[in-house]
Amino acid sequence: MLEKMIFGRFIPGDSFIHRLDARAKLIFVFLFIAVVFIANNWITYAILVLFTFLIIRMSRIRLYFLVNGLKPVVILIIFTFLLHLFFTREGAIIFEWKFLRIYEEGLRQGIFISIRFFVLVILTSILTLTTTPISITDALETLLNPLKKWKLPVHELALMMSISLRFIPTLMDETDKIMKAQMARGSDMTTGSMKERMNAIVPLLIPLFVSAFKRAEDLATAMEVRGYKGGEGRTRYRKLEWATKDTVIIVILLILAIILVYFRS
Amino acid sequence: MDITLQQVSYAYAKNTPFEKRALYDVDLHIPSGSYQAIIGHTGSGKSTVLQHLNALLKPTEGSIKIGDVEVKAEKKSKQLRKVRQKVGIVFQFPEHQLFDETVLKDIMFGPMNFGVSEEEAKRRAIDLVKLLGLPDEVLEKSPFDLSGGQMRRVAIAGVLAMNPEVLVLDEPTAGLDPRGRKEIMDLFYHLHKEKGLTTVLVTHSMEDAARYADRIAIMHDGKCVLAGTPQEIFSDEVRLMDYRLELPQSIKFQKKVEQMMEKKLPVLCLTEEMLAEELAQFLKKEREL
Question: Domain range holding B166?
């Protein structure tokens, strides 16, 4: 059951997107979030969708797999769509039934917001699906490096992030194992009333916490034993290398922004 | 309770890029009341088979009959609770599943989930703590205050408290000291005989398999490649080597002795005691001649 979760998982591959520098991808996604907000009419949104599909093609990730990973977000998208649909009161009325009134502008806004959501979620999923968590943290560390001047513990933050990312699969496995052990003892987490299910979670969470704390302690000891003393003077095993293609992808994004500004109303 | 695996195949994370086949067409019949060992090197699919015995995993293809319940891919989980009550699994490092405030409550968790009354569950817990050689005081202690070996015993008690008809053991003694190992394995054997349990032992230890099991199955690369009595299995050393397995110590020793004396003992000695006995008799006969 847990093995179906794909959120935040890396799929090895050798596409153009896979080979980009993690920093480039990170900057790209952050800029893209801003660029998405330029779009405000049908043509600009169409361009955005087209662009997203182009990126999906380039990442060579199977579409159905991406859609599968989007399932949890779909509810949120539908919810915001309905919110805009019913609560925007502008333009002509296109549908009326008792107290329900749907306005033209509401429909338009609903669709636009959904597209915005969709495009953002897909692009960020592509980032995590094509980049190893380790390179994402490395990239984040180098990008945040200037903030060290203001005493921000950048290295420690990055280390915390990579440790937590590293332990997600371990904890997932652990959860699966303990869940099975308790199921074998007759605990039932999938049926029964809300209260029963809540109660069934306790035998899962307590062993999980206990083992997580034990692991944390073991890790701390292991790091200390091997003389870990923070980021000062530390060299890297994996070097991030900025190539021409990384500059190209950022430039492409800027061109997209210019096109969108040109076509926006 | 008879258990029959028919053409069981299993794939983890089916229909994703992470799909991984773990079992291929496994056929295995475990008759009621037998002691079945499943051996194989790491990653051979032993643990996957084990999780099928309790319907924690459902086969992607094929079927498993556990008593009179048939488990298939499309079977709904509801009917499987009956199976879980009758099949107790002691997982690897079972102490990881302890969670309750006191040892007593933790042992009572299993039986009470299956509708056993509180008094009955309590009675079983008290009996089992004694049976597993733990002092009475532990009942009121937190399971997290116990030593590793004691935690293991409490966790085992938690499974036994469900009064299973089938006991499935996944390396139950991994990480214990030699004396603790022997005590626990002997206890399982004693329960097996006394209560007429069907026991399935998944193990790396050829010695345990040879000593306790009356049937052995070998798993290799997700397939069940060989099944038979310990005598049959351990008489073919070359084949064992193919599956990266070894002979039990006693048989190794027997082979060396046979080589030195250039004579053969009449039987394959599965335990040290048996070997000592056979050797003594053999030497006596030699002397008489």
Answer: 3-247
Residues B217 and B257 in one domain: no
Nearest to B77 among A62, A190, A210 (CB): A190
Alpha-helical regions (H) of chain A: 16-19, 22-36, 42-59, 63-87, 104-130, 133-144, 154-184, 194-225, 244-263
pLDDT at B74: 76
- Encoded amino acid at A79, one letter: F
- Cα distances from B277 to residues A148, B212, B266, B284, in angstroms, run 76, 18, 12, 11
C-alpha–C-alpha distance, residues A263 and B108, integer Å: 69
C-beta atoms of B159 and A202 within 8 A: no
On whether both B254 and B117 belong to a single domain, the answer is: no
Q: How far apart are CA B73 and CA B94, in angstroms?
A: 27
Chain A positions touching B18 (Cβ under 8 A) are: 3
CB contact under 8 A, A181 and B94: yes
The C-alpha atoms of residue B114 and residue B105 are separated, in whole angstroms, by 14
| Domain ranges (residues) in chain A | 2-165+240-263
B→A interface, C-beta within 8 Å: 12-13, 16-18, 51, 54, 56, 77-78, 81, 84-85, 87-89, 91, 94, 96-100, 109-110, 113-114, 144, 158-159, 162
Task: Measure the CA–CA gap between A255 and B22, rounded to whole angstroms.
Answer: 49
Question: B207-228: per-residue pLDDT in tens?
Answer: 999 999 999 999 999 999 999 9
How many domains is chain B partitioned into structurally?
A: 2
What's the average pLDDT block by block, 10 residues per block, for chain B (289 residues)? 90 77 91 93 88 88 88 74 88 90 93 91 94 91 91 94 93 89 92 93 91 93 91 89 89 90 85 90 86
* Structure confidence at residue A161 (pLDDT): 84
Q: Report pLDDT digits (tens) over A39-60.
A: 888 999 999 999 999 999 988 8
By the 8 A CB rule, do B14 and B60 touch?
yes
Cα–Cα distance between B189 and B125 in angstroms, integer? 20
Do B110 and B56 belong to one domain?
yes
Model pLDDT, residue A89 = 78
pLDDT tens digits along A7-43: 557 788 888 888 899 999 999 999 999 999 998 889 9
DSSP3 helix / strand / coil % (chain B, rounded to 5): 45, 20, 35
Residues of B with CB below 8 A from A182's CB?
A: 97
Task: Return d(Cα B150, Cα B144) in angstroms, integer.
Answer: 10
ipTM of the complex: 0.86
Q: Do A184 and B84 touch (CB under 8 A)?
A: yes
B266 and B175 in one domain? Answer: no
B177 in the same domain as B130: yes
Closest to A48 (Cα-Cα) out of A256, A263, A226, A223: A256
Determine the Cα–Cα distance for residues B23 and B48; give it in Å rounded to an integer: 8
- The residue assigned the tokens 């051996």 is B39
Q: What pTM was estimated for this model as a whole?
A: 0.76
> Considering only CB atoms, which chain A residues are within 8 Å of B164?
none
